Each structure stands twice: as C-alpha cells, then as structure tokens.
Amino acid sequence: MLEVKALTKRFGENIAVGNASFSVDRPKMIGIIGRSGAGKSTLLRMLNRLSDASEGEIWFEGTEVTALRGRQRRQWQSRCAMIFQQFNLVPRMDVVSNVLHGTLNRRSTLATMFNLYPQDDIHKAIEILDRLGIAEQAPKRAEALSGGQQQRVAIARALMQDPSIILADEPIASLDPMNAQIVMEALRRIHEEDGRMVIANLHTLDTARRYCDRVIGMRDGRIVFDGTPEQLTTGVARDIYGAGADFSEAATSTAIEMLDRQPHKAAPAVALV
Amino acid sequence: MTDATFGATPAGHTVEGIRADYMAQVQRRRLYGGLTLMIFVILMVSGFTVADSRNAGGFWDGLNQLGDYPGEVLAEAWANRANLPALIVRFLPALIETVNIAAVSTLVGAGAGLVLSLLSTRGLARWPRLTPLFRRLMDIMRAMPEIVIALVLIFVLGGGPVPAMIAIAIHTAGALGKMYSEVAENADLKPVEGLTSTGATWAQKMWLGVLPQVAPNYISYSLLRFEINIRASAILGFVGAGGLGYELRNSMSWGLGRFDEAAAIFLLLFGTIVLFDQVSSRYRNRLTEGHAK
Predict the structure, then answer these.
(1) Residue B170 distance to chain A (closest CA, Å)
(2) Distance (Å, rounded) from C-alpha A97 to C-alpha A143?
(3) What is the CATH T-level fold of the domain B70-289, as seen in this structure?
(4) Do the chains contact at B3 and A185, CB–CB below 8 Å?
(5) pLDDT in tens, chain B (293 residues)
(6) Distance in Å, alpha carbon of B229 to nearest chain A alpha carbon
(7) Scanning every residue of chain A, which has its alpha carbon at the shortest distance from the alpha carbon of B9?
(8) Which residues of A touch B26 (CB under 8 A)?
(9) How close B186 comes to chain A (CA, Å)?
C-alpha cells in the first residue's frame, strides 16, 4: 500500500532524514517516536509533499508520490491529510469554514474565494464536527476555541478531505493531558471505524504504546526501530532516545493514569536533551 | 461548556438545530455579500458612464491613441540612441540634487514622524489625553498636497531645493507618523513595563523598549517612503524646485524634438528606483534576520 524507499532529506550539510525505508501493507495506526530533531516532522512533511525529498521514493498504491507535479501533487495532498502541532487553522474564519477547507482541492478557486460551498458539504462538515463532539462550536471563530477544540477542528478538516492517510505531526504536544487523550482517542476511532491509515509523530512513549499498532523509532534521521509496541522494551527506548540507564518511561509521560503508576521510590528527574 | 464531551451532543442542541442555524447564517451572509457586490457593480458602471460622458475627448475614442505619446518618445529616443550616454552624464548632477532633496526630506520627516507616532499611540503616549491633537496634526500634514506647500514656500523663500525639501518633509512626517503609529500599537508592552519598573523616563522607555521591536518595520517603511520621495522631488522640479524635474519639464513637451532627453531622464529615474529598492531590500533582510544574506 504505502512504501517508502531510501528516503533522504538534506538541508545543506545536515541530513535530516537519512535512507529511511519502510512499507505498510494495510491501513494501520503507526506511531513515530524519537527525540526532537530526529527527523520525524521532516519525514511526515515529505510524505505529504509539503517538502521535497532530496533522494528516495514514496509509492502509494502503484503511484510514485515523489514524482507527482502540479495538479496531481495537490490531489495527492488532498488524499493524504495532515494535522499539525499548532493546529494551523485560519483563526478569523468560523469553524465550519475551516472544516470546509478540506474540500478545497475538489472545488473551483473562484467559488471558494467567495466562501460558496455546496449545501451537502456544509451538512457533512457539521456531521463530522458532531462526530468529534464539537458541533456546538460550528458558527464560532476558530480562534475563540480552546486548544483541544481547535485540534479537533483540524481533525474534522482532515476528515473532510476523505483521505486514505492521515498524518499527524505531534498532534498532542501543545495540549493538556485531558485534551491529549480526547484527540488521541479520536484518531484511534477514525482508524478503527473508517479504516484509514494514521501516521502520528509522538513525543511520549506511552502514547505510542497505548494507541498504535506499530511503532517506528527514529534517531538522528535514521530509522532505528520498527516493530510492535510489545517489542519496544525499555532498553530499545533508551537506544532511541539516546538516554542513559536512569531513563524511565514515567518521566516523559503526560498520561493521567501514569500518575498512579509512578514507582514508589522517588523517580529521578530525567532531562531528555 | 466541557471539553470532554465526546460523541453525543448535549440535549437541547440537536445536530439538525445547529445545522439549520448555520445554514440560515450562511444564507444571510450570502445575501449581504450579493447585495454588496451588486451595489458595487452598479456604482462602478454608472460612475464610469457619467465620467465618460463628461470627458472632453471620450474614453473609447481616445483609447486607441493611448500608445501614441510613449510610442513617439521611444521612436525618437531610439533614433537618437547614440546621444543617450552623453545625456545621462549631463543629467547626473540634476539627479543627485533630486536624490539629495528626497534623502534629506525623508530623514527630517522620519524623525518628526517618529516623535509624532509615539505621542499618538495608545498605551505609549507621553500625554494620553493629547493623542487626538497629534493625530489631527498628522492628518493635516498628510492632507496638504506637497505641490501646494512647495508653491507657497517658493513664493516666500524663492525657488530652489529648500522649499521642496520642507514640503516633502511635512508630508513624509504625516504619512510615516501614521504608519509608525500602527506598528507601535502592535508592539509588546512587557519590555516597556520592565523598564518602567526600573524608573526609566518616557524617552528612555521609548528608545530602549519600543524602538528595538519596531525598528525593522520602521526602516522598511522609511525606505519605501524614500523611493516615493525621489519621485515626489522630481515632480516638484516642475514648479521650480530644481533637480531632475525641471529638466524633464523642458524636454518632454511635444514637438521640440528633445524626447531623447526625456528618455534619458526616465532611464535615470528608473535606475535610481531599482537601485534603492535593491539596496533597501538587502538592508531590510539583514535587519530582520540579524545577519547578511
């Protein structure tokens, strides 16, 4: 289905992503972990074609995504929705309009400039908002919403694209634990109910363990781990994060129930640089 | 309102209700938008017809002659193209005079505009109750056409670059003051509060707390203004302020056979604007990014 072959991205001398290869044969929920600067964001941005790869290929269902240009590239982007850490909504437009932006690839430029969308699309947008539990916010401006609500609007925009793949770049990094859980559960549900592939960059190990079927670990631009959450032992995690023996998973956790799972002896504060 | 509700919407607000409300809002917005567009089109069309009927020549009759003058200038300049380098050298002193007028008036105007803008910005003003006074003062400075001020000053002071400089500086102070003040409104007040807590005076707070934040924007507006002022000081030459404009007026009249001079002057003006645009954008990049690119 999705195949990434020797994907590389260089910024001048630096290699952000080096020789990354993996393949996915059916829709799964995949978590990419690694410390900041490991190349997770760059990898996702290349998958969406927000930025171009320096070398390597991406194939999806028999099409070479990395070779698409112009209109076809934009069509690929509409099939491959992206969710960002900072939500990236248009703050001064209302929630439904923001969700309707998911249809931009299918509609004429002129009609969308005057905010003219078919009634069916508007109804569908409100249905999606209802599915995510924020239908009541429909007429409000996006900037008036809380972070968790805004991220759900962003997910609604992604769903409006009716995509085959949803890419999520640190979707919960700027949310509090409660909202983080809501957003992750929404993503998981979309994966299970609609059968869409979800690839999410995550900065906490336990989120990856809890919500993903498969975990890819990156370090310094290279894929150093690729397997199931069960195979992700503490030793492997230390390797991915380049941490010493004092590394404890609870130290990076933002999950609420982790508070109960804290070891009884005082956990040493670990600074993950 | 809880963030945690997930799936079911609370009773009382059904999806149908929300949908109907939103559709009504969309219909209303479209109606208003359509009406506004219609009024705009009607005004444009009727305004154009009125203007055309009152026009001495007629728009459609004159349209095909639009290219005649530039065509003749180009043809004549091309025929005498051998003269161009010599003419450019001849007009260079006049160009320097024009650029000098523009530079001095931009500097003076920017200085005055800076003070006026800080005095008329909400949250920063030295005397908050006097902000309307300073704003109206800037309005007046902007409202007076440069050419009117220049004509009056030339009458009083006699012809030359100084009246032009003063006229452009007055307009620049008003125009830049307004732009500066809009930038300053968006400045972060926290550094100012920090300086206030150390017992700084108003001038110290502005100089050390506000200017570092707004400097890149101020510089780029001032450089844009400098370009506008080069053109303005060339125009003021028409009314006797010297510089390139005076030469241009003499050469661009029809039938004198001096269009090659006009072409040389236009080339000089164009080159100057391009040069300053390049210089200013490079300088601006360095300011905003903190290093040369």
Answers:
(1) 38
(2) 13
(3) MetI-like fold (1.10.3720)
(4) no
(5) 444 444 444 444 688 888 888 999 999 999 999 999 999 999 999 998 888 888 766 777 777 878 887 888 788 778 878 888 888 888 888 888 889 999 999 999 999 999 999 999 988 888 989 999 999 999 999 998 888 888 898 888 887 888 889 999 999 999 999 999 999 998 888 999 899 888 889 999 999 999 988 988 898 899 889 988 988 888 888 877 778 888 888 787 766 667 788 888 888 888 888 888 888 778 777 776 665 44
(6) 36
(7) A133
(8) 122
(9) 18
A270 class by beta-carbon count within 10 Å (0-12 exposed, 13-18 middle, 19+ buried): middle
Q: Tell me what ipTM this predicted complex has.
A: 0.71
One-letter amino acid at B145 equals P
- R_g of chain B computed on alpha carbons: 27
Q: What domains does chain A contain, in order, with CATH numbers?
A: 2-261 (3.40.50.300)
Q: Which of A50, A236, A87 is nearest to A173 (CA)?
A: A87
Q: Which amino acid is at B52?
A: D
Minimum-distance CB partner of B21 among A114, A130, A139: A139
Q: Which residues in chain A touch residue B21, judged by CB atoms under 8 angstroms apart?
A: 138-139
Distance from CA of A23 to the nearest CA of B (A): 33
User: What count of Cα atoms within 13 Å lies in the side-chain half-sphere of residue A86?
Assistant: 4
Contact A60, A11 (CB under 8 A): no
Pull the structure tokens for residue A17. Answer: 């992503």
Which SS3 state, helix, strand or coil, does residue A80 take? strand
Contact A99, A185 (CB under 8 A): no
Q: What Cα–Cα distance (Å) separates residue A244 from each residue in A221, A234, A239?
A: 20, 11, 9
Tokens of B26: 């969309």
Asked if A139's CB is within 8 angstroms of B23's CB, the reply is: no
How far is A38 from B181, CA to CA, in rounded Å?
A: 43
Q: What is the DSSP letter of A165?
A: E
pTM higher than 0.90: no
Out of A119, A139, A148, the one facing B3 most closely (by C-beta) is A148
Q: Are strands A222-227 and A214-219 parallel, antiparallel or unpaired?
A: antiparallel
Q: Tens digits of per-residue pLDDT, A166-185?
A: 999 999 988 888 889 999 99
Closest CB to B22 among A132, A139, A146: A139
Cα of A190 vs its chain's centroid, Å? 13
- Minimal CA–CA distance to B140: which of B156, B154, B120, B126? B120
Chain A residues 91-150 with CB within 8 Å of chain B: 96, 114-116, 119, 122-123, 126-127, 130-133, 135-136, 138-139, 146, 148-149
Dist. CA A186–CA A130, nearest whole Å:
12
Per residue in A72-84, pLDDT (tens digit) is 999 999 999 999 9
The answer to whether residues A53 and A9 touch, using CB atoms and an 8 Å cutoff, is yes
